Amino acid sequence: MTDELDTPLDVHGFAERFEAEGNRDCQLYLISPQEVDGSFPERLRAALDGGPVAAFQLRVKGVDEHQLARLAEPLQAICAEREVAFIVNDSIGLAKRLGADGVHLGQSDGDPREARTILGAAAQVGVTCHDSRHLAMEAGEAGADYVAFGAFYPTTTKRSEYRPDPSILGWWSTLFTIPCVAIGGITPANAKPLVEAGADFVAVCQAVWGAEDPAAAVAAFTPVLGRG
Known about the structure:
It is built from nine helices and eight strands. The protein is of the alpha/beta class. An eight-stranded parallel barrel has the order 1-2-3-4-5-6-7-8, surrounded by six helices. Strand 3 (85-89), helix 3 and strand 4 form a beta-alpha-beta unit. Residues 4-23 have low confidence and may be disordered.
C-alpha cells in the first residue's frame, strides 16, 4: 500500500532518553530473537557493550504471558543498567505489568491512545506503518512517539509483503518531528541508504543475534549510523 500526504502534523518528538538534543546521527534499535532464555541475557549484555544502542524490543511469539514476564526480568534489568529503553512488542498489558519503557504496536495490536491511557505519558509508543504514509499520519495523530516503516530488505525475522522505498523516510523526517524507524533485513552493509534517506533509528535483529559475536555486530553499525 502506498499513499500521499500534503498536510504536515504538529506532533511531539521522541523522549530524551531516545534522542539526545542536537544528536542528528541515526541510532540503533535492537529487536530480540524468538529465543531469549538460556545464555541470551549474556549475549544481550555483550551486544550492549559493543556500541551505542537506544532501545531493545522484546519480541517473542507464542509464549504464555507469565512465562514471558519471567524471561523478561533479567533482560529488562540489563537494559536499565545500560540506560537502554526496554520496549515490549504487541502487548499493552505485558508492558504495563513489567513497567516497561514502552510498547510497540502492530496495526492489529491496539490503539496508541489506549496505550497512552494505560501506560502513562512517559511511555514510548511505537506503531508499525509498513509502507503507508496514511497509517503513519494516523499514528501521529493518535499520539505515537515513533513510526516504523518496512521491511526495506528481505528478512526472515517477520514475513512482510511490504517493501517501501527509502524516500518515505525522507518524506517523513522532512515534514514531521516524530522520529521514524527503518526495519527489515538491515545490516551494516545495506543500512547507509536508509540513514541517508532520513531514518532516525534502524531496527535490527538477525544482523546482531545471528552473529557469533553480538558485540562486534553492534560495533559494525556504529560507523554506518553517523550522518556527518
